[in-house]
Design goal:
Strand content: 25-35%
Number of strands: 38
Distance between the termini: 110 Å
Mean pLDDT: 77
Number of helices: 9
Oligomer: single chain
Structural class: alpha+beta
Largest sheet: 10 strands, mixed
Shape: rod-shaped
Length: about 725
């Protein structure tokens, strides 16, 4: 895989500039002045009140982080190492040797130098202990590891390693990532001059959409001599380079998962590897044969140099000059020239030791370990913050929560969580519970049925409410129409009578309880007309034997509008009362036409005492009521009936027999002959008159009678 080293260097240089400017006194003010002309929004996650995608700043996620190294020079005691220089013609010459010692500050090379401020004028390096291994491919790998913990999920753009000046760049490097804080590891990238032999992968393989989450292997890092011992350089792995879906990253969960990491591990497997002639088509057997021939030559050459080398000293490819110039010629440095030892090492011979066999000693040296990326917040936060416990979390917006804003915060489950995109911030929506619930859940089925609008289901509805949105009253309660549904007292208890009601559940709209036979009232707390209270809990109200049904109004019969006079009246007889002459009649158009008047009025009161006529005879006395005439449906041309208050007379004998039955504060429909007044100044009703207690639904029928009465003869 080709790597644009220059572009990564520019990015890294800019980051270093920002860090260095802020590290010096007054640097923060200078940096602020440079960008003072740019308008900083109050909240990058919102455009006024409209949510939009926001992402944290691009940073070097490795800066200042802890790196664990499996090997560090000098941790086991003072260790010698030597510098080498490239000679004309490509040969490697040994210059000076030094001592690394972890107990001496100036001779320490800890892993913390990998992630400190990378200053080209003051290079600091990590260095591994010298390793002794064979150059044969069959020899075990070195497996020197560097493990970087980022402390949080990041979406990475690149991983780069800057090798120390004059240090050899390793031949085979494996980079792994972890997304679960080091519990499991996944291959991220491989580098090797022989990818298939070392890692079992083809060199520079093409990535398709079918394998976008697979690690590649490349030999692009070997940009200098075939042995890799040229000037120190950098390798930079671009996480999205060559990935087909990189241009549509927002809609590619595969790549979003691919660039996510909490930890990075770099494994140096081999510093040097035998290089086959790329112009020759040779097989594994021929390459193995050449390895053996080369090992034999190295063995003979080593034996000729045994007298010049201390058996405990190894000649190592250098890292960089870590000691001060005045120390380079101190007792701590061995001047190889004073030993009259000026070996001419061939380009393929990197290390020579005095031990038996074909063992070679080498080490790894890295000055900077950088990881470029952004704190992973899924587009719902513009920055990450460090808590009191040292844990780094996203400062979540859009009603999201979690360390990475990876879920909706409680009570905001009306739509499914989703990563923010440039087109839609995918803000989490609060459930609609009408202020009666504090918890809710998301239902995929309801979300789909609603056309992907709402999927929230309220839990534990309070204030006696129920339903998905706590929008109706619980069983045993009914809706109070005087209060909004959001009111905490919007639902009232049914309060059904324990004896009069047949159940405890009332109509949730009206509050009407289910009453037993003969019982009436909203809460079933009284007997209906024609019923009286009993001592039975099963039948608390029983029919009165002497009382029959009152007059009423019926519906249409055989297509003819008429009224049933006995719905609220009584059609039976008592011992002293005769049968009401009009009680069993049905009011139809013919009877409507035969009456002088048809009025709707409300009986507002009754005068105290009786009006006596015809010689104070009790049989001729009349009860006097106040009648407020509301509607006049019919009257004769010379009628004295008019709207307003008039006096209503009813014979006391007829009133006692409830023929008609009249009560104050009730509205009645009156039909009769106006000359039945017997000379009284008002309206008189007799047993021949029709008196029916009024119902509002009769307005339309009476108007129909009124229109059809024009054909009366």
């Amino acid at each position: 895989m080709s790597t644009n080293v220059g572009s990564w260097t520019m990015v890294h240089t800019f980051l270093l500039f920002v860090l260095s400017v802020n590290s010096v006194k007054g640097g923060g003010e200078l940096f602020a002045k440079m960008f003072s002309s740019q308008a900083i929004p109050s909240d990058p996650c919102y455009d006024e009140d409209r949510p939009r995608r926001c992402i944290p700043d691009f940073v070097n996620a490795a800066f200042g982080k802890t790196v664990e190294a499996s090997s560090t020079c000098g941790t086991g005691g003072p260790t010698r190492y030597c510098d080498v220089q490239e000679q004309p013609g490509g040969s490697i010459g040994v210059s000076h040797c030094h001592v690394c010692d972890d107990t001496t500050p100036r001779r320490r090379f800890p892993a913390s130098y990998l992630t400190d401020l990378n200053n080209p004028n003051n290079v600091t390096c990590w260095r591994s202990e010298p390793l002794v291994s064979s150059q044969s491919f069959n020899a075990p790998p070195d497996n020197v590891t560097l493990t970087l913990s980022l402390g949080k999920k990041y979406e990475l753009t690149y991983v780069s390693l800057q090798f120390c000046p004059k240090a050899a760049k390793p031949d085979s490097i494996a980079i792994y990532k972890s997304m679960d804080y080091g519990k499991t590891w996944q291959p991220f990238q491989f580098y090797s001059s022989q990818c298939r032999r070392v890692y079992g992968r083809p060199n520079r393989a093409t990535i398709t959409k079918a394998n976008e989450q697979e690690a590649r292997c490349t030999d692009s890092h070997r940009f200098t001599g075939g042995d890799g011992l040229g000037p120190a350089g950098r390798i930079a792995f671009s996480t999205l380079e060559g990935r087909p879906s990189a241009a549509d990253f927002d809609n590619s969960p595969v790549l979003q998962d691919w660039v996510t990491a909490t930890d990075i591990r770099v494994i140096f497997n081999r510093l040097h590897m035998l290089q086959p002639d790329l112009n020759e088509d040779i097989g594994i057997e021929e390459l193995t044969k050449r390895e053996r021939e080369r090992e034999e030559k190295l063995k003979n050459h080593k034996n000729n140099l045994l007298h010049a080398i201390d058996p405990l000293v190894t000649v190592i490819p250098s890292v960089h000059q870590v000691l001060a110039p005045q120390e380079m010629h101190s007792n701590d440095a061995l001047d190889i020239q004073e030993m009259n030892f000026q070996p001419d090492i061939s380009p393929t011979t990197t290390i020579v030791t005095a031990t038996s066999g074909t063992a070679l000693a080498h080490h790894y040296a890295v000055s900077d370990f950088a990881v470029g990326g952004r704190c992973k917040c899924n587009g719902h936060a513009s920055r990450c913050v460090t808590g009191k416990d040292g844990e780094v979390t996203c400062e979540c917006k859009h009603n999201t929560a979690g360390r990475d804003c990876e879920r909706c915060k409680p009570f905001h489950f009306d739509r499914p969580w989703a990563r923010a995109t440039a087109k839609d911030a995918n803000e989490c929506k609060a459930c609609n519970c009408n202020l009666h619930a504090r918890k809710c859940r998301f239902s995929v089925e309801l979300y789909k049925l609603s056309g992907r609008v709402s999927g929230g289901v309220c839990l534990l509805c309070r204030h006696f409410t129920a339903g998905r949105h706590c929008h109706y009253c619980r069983e045993g309660y009914y809706r109070d129409p005087t209060k909004p549904i959001t009111h905490r007292k919007a639902c009232k208890p049914c309060d059904c009578h324990l004896i009069g009601a047949s159940g405890k559940t009332c109509n949730q709209s009206t509050g009407q309880c289910p009453c037993k036979d003969g019982v009436t009232g909203t809460t079933c707390n009284r007997c209906a007309r024609g019923y009286q209270q009993s001592r039975s809990h099963i039948a608390p109200c029983v029919r009165i034997p002497q009382v029959v049904q009152t007059q009423g109004i019926a519906g249409e019969n055989n297509g003819e509008d008429d009224y049933d006079e006995d719905e609220h009246g009584y059609d039976g007889q008592t011992e002293h009362c005769g049968k009401c002459r009009a009680s069993t009649r049905r009011l139809n158009l013919n009877k409507y036409c035969k009456r002088d008047y048809a009025i709707l009025g409300r009986v507002t009161g009754r005068y105290k005492g009786n009006e006596v006529a015809n010689g104070n005879s009790a049989s001729n006395s009349f009860a006097r009521f106040t009648l407020n005439v509301d509607v006049i449906y019919k009257r004769s041309p010379d009628s004295k009936i008019k709207r307003g208050t008039i006096t209503l007379f009813v014979h006391t004998t007829d009133l006692a027999c409830k023929c008609p039955k009249i009560k104050p504060n009730k509205s009645y429909l009156f039909l009769g002959q106006e000359n039945d007044g017997s000379g009284k100044n008002g309206l008189t009703v007799t047993p021949k008159s029709i008196v029916i207690e009024w119902r509002d639904e009769w307005y339309r029928r009476m108007r129909r009678f009124q229109r059809r009465a024009r054909s009366c003869h």
